[in-house]
Amino acid sequence: MQRWILLVIAMFSTACLAQGQVNPMPLETPGVELMTTPFSIPECKPAVGVTFKLQRISDYLVELIASGLKPGETPYVYYMTNGKGGGFPGNIVRESGELFTDLNWSDFRADLLEPPEGQLSATWDITLVHVRGVECAAITLP
Question: Which one of 2.40.128.280, 2.60.40.230, 3.30.420.10, 3.90.960.10 gives the CATH number of domain 51-141?
């Protein structure tokens, strides 16, 4: 009888321990999105109340402007043209929920700036990934 009670207690203890364990999950830094390849850009899923636009400053400088974002987050910006691209963390979103980030194409690799052969300009697809959705816009430069 004592063995039976010990067996039941051991099984109960094991079940309690198993319930208390948390499956190991990778740690994430809040507001930082990891990019595996330039081609793993998420599909556009605009969030209600978020506005996103690109404003051309010069042939090589564009201002990314967004509002309605979560204050303090750091969205990820992806860029793509002519089948090539990359990404980087944007600026931290202001307390007002606004984001302003300059995209200076001269900072990126020169071969990404070149329009397709025979063309004078290239269209850039810009994707903003934030905690509530994925915003997309395009701009043609120069």
Answer: 2.60.40.230
